[in-house]
Amino acid sequence: MDDDNWPPEWLRGVLSVCVLRVLADGTTYGYAIAAALADRGLGPLKGGTLYPLLKRLEEAGWVVTEWRAGDGGPGRKYYALTAAGEVELARSAALWEQFTTMTRTIIADGATRPSQTEEELV
Question: So what's the pLDDT on residue 18?
């Protein structure tokens, strides 16, 4: 599957932990976060998706923001992970790992079991 076509509901489920993970590498701005996620295979993100999420992460206390003057251009809003954000990243990453392991098991189990007829299901 082309990374531009990940189902939107999958992206909604994993985007927060992915953004927190990018911020764990250091303070950066929105466009660079989107570029890092695209480079890692998540596909392009729209500002209408990323910036509201960053605002929610800030409201949760997991991210802090700072405006910095631009070099010959407009200023940029930079985002940094807080200590609480580091804790949330660890928690979310562990939960996501459990979830993906469980779903892989369900999918693999379903692929190896013989299909059941309607009569067997009743």
Answer: 97
Number of Cβ atoms within 10 Å of the Cβ of 112: 6
- The Cα 35–Cα 61 span in angstroms is 24
Judged against a pLDDT cut of 60, whether residue 35 lies above it is answered with yes
Q: Contact 57/82 with Cβ under 8 angstroms?
A: no
Mean predicted confidence (pLDDT) in 95-108: 93
For each of the domains in the chain, give its residue range(s) and CATH number, in order of start.
3-112 (1.10.10.10)
For residues 83 and 63, the answer to whether their CB atoms sit within 8 Å is no
Q: For residue 1, is pLDDT > 50?
A: no
Residue among 61, 55, 56, 63 nearest 22 (CA): 63
For 66, the enclosing helix (H) or strand (E) is strand 63-68
- Residue 20 Cα distances to 10, 68, 78, angstroms: 17, 20, 13
pLDDT at 33: 96
**Rounded distance between C-alpha atoms, residue 32 and residue 22, angstroms:** 9
